[in-house]
Every structure is written in C-alpha cells, then in structure tokens.
Design a protein that fits this description.
heterodimer, A: Glutaconate Coenzyme A-transferase, Glutaconate Coenzyme A-transferase, 2 domains, nine-stranded mixed β-sheet, B: Ribosomal Protein S5, domain 2, 4 strands, 41% helix
C-alpha cells in the first residue's frame, strides 16, 4: 500500500470493519484533526462495535462523542479524557465500556496484547519517502511522539497521517519499515491547540507557599544532591518548584542526572545551563521544548514503554528520585483522584500519575487545601487513580501530611522544623474554613473502570446521574 | 426603587443582587450547592436577621465563597440597598 489522500481507500485496503480495534495518540492534543477525520469515515460506513484506543481524548474530539451516542462504540480505552466525551459519560452513557489506563499501563497493555490493535492511525507531523516519521518538522510539529511508539510496533497495520511530505528526515522517530501506508491531509492539526506558549509559573501566594514548602522538604530529605533525578507536571505550582530548583542548583553548583516526563521550556533552560545532564521527553508541552528537541542531543524523545511500562526493567522512571504531582482529591489513606470530580464527572485521568507515584523513591502531592470551597482532602476519594500506598507526602499551604508508612520521612521533616500535621488534622483545618460538606457522592450505574498500570481493576467509574 | 449588585463571579467569590420585592425571598445558585447549599442559606438568613428588611429579593450567585465572604458581600449589599432606597 502506498500513499493516498483518501481515507476510504485506507478503510478498504485494511478491511476496517465492524468490531475493528483502532488506536490514536494524543501528541496533537486539542489541535488534533486526525481522530475526527478517521472516525468520520467510520461513521459514514455505519461501523459498529468499534474498540477504540486513543491515548487521550480532548474537547476537540467531537466525532467520538457522536459515535458513542449512536451506540457504535463497544469499548473506549484511554489514559486521559475531558470535554464532550466526558459529558457523554457523565449524562448519557448506558454501557459499561470505559477503561482508564495510565501511560505506562497502556504501553504494557499494547506490548503484551491486552490492547490488541488492528490499525493504528499515527498523526505524523512530517513523513519522508521511506515512510519514516518525525514530530519535529511541519506545521503541526509536536516534538516527541512517545505515546505512538508501541502502537507502531504492535498494531497489525500502521497508517501515518501527515500534511508534510519531505524527501529525507534525519533521525526519524518512527521507522518506515513498521509503516503500511501514508494518508496525506491538507492539515493534521491546528498548531494553536497543540502547544501552549510559555507555560507560566504560579505567582499566587498560596501556590508560592506550597512550592516553598516542597523545596524545604526536598532540602531536609537531602533529595537535591549531585546526580539526582526529578519529574514534575506542567502545573503552575510544579513549575514554580522547578524554577526554585534552578535557583538552588545554580547557587550550590548541583547537577541533576535527568528530568523526565512532559518537558517544558523551564526544563530546557536548565539543560542548556548545564544543570541537568539529560531530558527524557515523552511529550513536549511547549514550543521551547520542541525547539530544544531539534537542537540538543541530550534532550531525548522516548517511548511510553521506555518511560513508564512497569514490566520494562529499563524504564526511565524506575530510577526517579522524586516526582511532584497534583490531586483533585486525596483521602485519609493517601489515595489520590485525578480522574473525576466529586460528582463522578471525568475531568482527566492518570496520565503518568500512578506510574511515577509508584516508581519514584519520593512522591509529593502539591495542592491547595481548598479549591473553590471544596476541601481537597476527603474521607474517601470519589475515584482512586493512584493508590495511597504509593503516595508519600501531601503538601498544602496550611501544612504537610506524611503517609504514616513513611516514619523516616516524618522524623526527618520534624527535625528540620517543617510544619508536619496528620492528614486528618489538615482535613479538620479545611473544615473549620469551609464547613463540613454534605455528602454528594451518589452510586449510579457503572460506566467503566480505572485500571492499574499492571492491568488490575483499581476502581469503578460511575455516571453522574 | 433601585437594584443593588455587590461582589463578582470570580472563583471563591459570590455576586449578591438585591431587588425590591413584595416579600423577602432568597435564591441561591452555587457551584457547591450540593455540599454547602444549606450552609449558604443559613449564613444569608443570619445576616438578614440582623437587619429590618422585609421587602427584598436576594439572589446569591456563589462561586465557592467561604462563609465570611458571603457575609461581607451581603452586609455591604444591604447597607447600599438601604442608602439607595431609604435614604438612611
């Protein structure tokens, strides 16, 4: 099969029919045009019983919602989900069809056959004459193609979808020998939805206080030492911690071995200042990260398997000293929810949350104690994304709570004069400010489940009403 | 008779609107109604009980304000309402 501009020809040639398993990756995020284009064809053909494996679902993915409403989807397996599809599951879903994985769990499942994929549609910003692909060129350049790599190796058929054909790509991320066909569109995505400009550091006093507490704890625990490794999300508080690390490492002449995960310009600045040896990049969050991936040999695009597959002994995060993560809810057993709000509506998903919390030697959750009157600490989280036994410390603006299983951390933090409370104590502080919230959780019909990175069922997902 | 509007629709704030009416009524719209609707009503009623006001419709559009913020917004609204409508 060669190169075509006709999606119908692809469906014909690879016999995409009722019951097909189709995968997508999410590096074009909310700018992605590929998933809608492919699923529109599935709709035209009135295909049923589709098994869909997008690595994440964003507000732009409206055709998927329509297919769900029309009853054409037998199962949806993804790592992160928001927008109209989340609204569908909150209000209209009747079937028990949603499976939420982690980034590492998805890679494991694709490799081990738990996510059997008939055909992978890979949004490829640039493709050359040998069907090699790169995320670094073209108008829809997104940088790392980390989440597509396992699909390319393990799907029965692989179709690159691109808007940019070139003669030859240096250092392609996807090898043309794994590719069956190339589909050429006018545009595979809207750059405005793919990357942000510069991601901003928090200036909000609550966020600043949380970031400073996190730094004091890292200091007390001796985490910030020559050769340490670190990961954080791209939230404002996490990035503020990265900036504070930059200052401290510059001042004390400390060098890190690697930063991993989603990479931003704030990480790139430290690479180029010689403060960190390597960036392991599974996803570029901004334009500076993409530009750095082009010019810096020690900024390395890695697959989700190399990043976080629990059954890959060489996974990068197995060597991670510290990860900083967020929480929508956290409970008295330190279970964390980043999958649903307290009314069962899906607002995201693990991504790498449960992978890094388990693997990193130290996992810190940073969050304001109260968000719009809702206390973040619950007796029980609405949904378990990340089991509490993998979570070490909660840091809020009104004190930190340490998992009682980590007595060593508790003692060190207390000796360093940090304000250590119990998680029950922090919940009580929140309740004095907000009042005790009336219970809002309703047990409605199940719509799916959260899966651990090893494929066990972690928790059930419910419709909102 | 004048309508008075106090506050904002920013997160953690509330917008209070007082409108002349034949009897006092309270309308609450809140992003945290399920968890805190009763408590918001109790705060509004407590503030009202400190004032002689039996001719006003109170609308509270709440974005997760804490009790003291709701109380302060409503106190201010009532003060302005009285100034505007009773010349006191």
């Amino acid at each position: 099969m060669k190169t075509t501009t006709d999606i119908a020809a692809i469906f014909d040639d690879f016999n995409v029919k009722d019951g097909a398993s189709i995968s997508f990756h999410h590096h074009l995020r909310n700018g992605d045009a590929v998933q809608n284009h492919v699923l529109d064809e599935a709709r035209r053909r009135k295909l049923k019983n589709l098994r869909l494996y997008p690595s994440a679902v964003f507000p732009v993915h409206r055709v998927l919602k329509t297919l769900l409403e029309e009853g054409a989807v037998a199962s949806l397996t993804t790592n992160y989900l928001n927008g109209p599809v989340a609204e569908y599951f909150a209000k209209e879903a009747s079937g028990d069809i949603l499976r939420m994985q982690s980034h590492g769990g998805r890679a494991r499942a694709v490799i081990e056959g738990d996510n059997p994929i008939d055909i992978a549609f890979v949004a490829a910003p640039a493709v050359d004459a040998q069907k090699n692909a790169s995320g670094l060129e073209g108008p829809a350049a997104c940088g790392s193609l980390g989440y597509a790599m396992e699909d390319v190796k393990h799907a029965k058929h692989v179709v690159l979808v691109t808007d940019t054909l070139v003669d030859h790509l240096e250092n392609p991320q996807i090898d043309g020998t794994d590719v069956d066909a190339v589909l050429v569109l006018d545009s595979i995505g809207d750059p405005k939805g793919i990357t942000s400009g510069t991601l901003s550091l928090t200036r909000d006093p609550i966020g600043m206080k949380i970031a400073r507490s996190a730094m004091r704890l890292l200091d007390a625990l001796g985490v910030i030492k020559e050769g340490f490794s670190f990961q954080s999300g791209a939230g404002g508080v996490s990035l503020r911690v990265v900036d504070m690390l930059n200052e401290k490492m510059t001042r004390d002449r400390i060098h890190a071995s690697f930063f991993s995960g989603g990479i931003t310009g704030h990480h790139v600045k430290m690479l180029e200042a010689g403060l960190v040896e390597t960036l392991y990049d599974v996803q570029c969050f901004d334009l500076e990260a993409i530009a750095s991936l082009r010019r810096n040999a020690s900024h390395i695009a890695i697959s989700a398997d190399r990043y976080a597959n629990p059954n890959n002994p060489d996974r990068v995060i197995a060597d991670l000293d510290c990860v900083i993560l967020g929480a929508t809810e956290i409970d008295l057993d330190f279970n964390v929810n980043v999958t649903t709000d307290s009314h069962n509506t899906i607002i995201g998903g693990s991504g790498g949350h449960s992978d890094t919390a388990e693997d990193a030697k130290l996992s810190l959750i940073v969050t304001p104690l109260i968000k719009g009157r809702i206390p973040v600490i619950k007796e029980r989280v609405t949904t378990i994304t990340t089991p509490g036994k993998t979570v070490d410390v909660l840091i809020t603006e009104r004190g930190i709570a340490i998992n009682p299983a980590r007595q060593g951390i508790i003692e060190t933090a207390q000796k360093a004069g940090l304000h250590v409370d119990t998680i029950e104590g922090l919940m009580a502080i929140a309740h004095t400010l907000t009042g005790v919230p009336a219970s809002t959780a309703r047990k409605t019909h199940p719509i799916g489940f959260v899966e651990s990175r090893r494929g066990e069922r972690l928790d059930t997902l419910h419709a909102k009403e | 008779m004048k309508t008075i509007v106090v506050g904002s629709l920013e997160s953690s704030d509330c917008l209070i609107t007082l409108t002349p009416a034949s009897e006092t009524t309270i309308d609450i719209e809140s992003v945290v109604y399920d968890a805190f609707g009763d408590q918001i009503r109790a705060v509004i009623e407590a503030v009202l009980s400190r004032h002689h006001l039996d001719d006003v419709h109170i609308r509270c559009q709440d974005k997760g304000a804490l009790d003291y913020a709701i109380e302060a917004r409503l106190e201010t609204a009532i003060r302005r309402y009285k100034e505007a409508n009773h010349g006191s």
